[in-house]
């Protein structure tokens, strides 16, 4: 979560032609185009928003001016990754409040809130920390700004985006963007010309105050079908993930449904990676990648050796559980760079266990996932891929491949 702010800073430093940058989460979208971002800018360097349903400063969207001050502020936020307490810290959302305390409050007040952050165990505790921060920093706020007007926090319902789950698709003239477009339905069909077609049929914010049960999701799907006048009889099959609530929603609707093949593959990988002999090797990869991220001197030497050997400039990758094939790609990168690592004051003997494990099955799954993620693929590709994969697992022969 912190890297995204580093990316913004890096992009800003390379594009001085842009005066202002808007950062938004991937689940934000314009609902009312009759607004302009210029409405929210009034001489500041960086602008945040108060969330409507709680006491947080929103971490998922901000306006930042392309100045040294703006870039430094984001860098300070990103570097707060190294100051996170070993608690339920809320990632960069918790960190923005820690940064505001550090910059705009006294040491005495910081200590009081820091203690609450350090003992946080859940969202309720995190909210207590947030309330503490807001109580003290607002004593330093002048006309909703800090640091002589350089940093502004727009009040609830006065910013360019709000959490849309409260009102679903309903919006007012004051609204500009919604946050939380989580529920989406993609429709696939064969045209009259016998070509495969698809379209995003629906993208709806789910009510954050509703339990996202099978019954609730069934209702949302029925609303979509009614809106587009699609009868259940015209639905051949629903492809969904393997979550129990999704299965239940399809069952309650009386619609034929099936697990997403790639999603099931990733669940199988996740279980397999829990084996001790695999887990220990993955932990080694994680430690090396973390050291690569945190030590600028290590990265500098690492890249210098690559350059001296005439190799392509490749960094190490972190294992991100929510991304398909992330673990395999992180392992693969360490193995590709093993000769460089051997020269960079790293005891690579600790990594030798990696070479003793046959990662070919992960490589094959990565290839299948990549290929089947294409819009042009169909069941005619899934079945051979499934057969090749099960055959390889049974025989443990590296030579078997589906393509």
From TrEMBL:
Superkingdom field: Eukaryota
Pfam family, one: DUF273
Signal peptide range: none
Protein name: Transposase
Source organism (scientific name): Meloidogyne javanica (Root-knot nematode worm)
Organism classification: Eukaryota, Metazoa, Ecdysozoa, Nematoda, Chromadorea
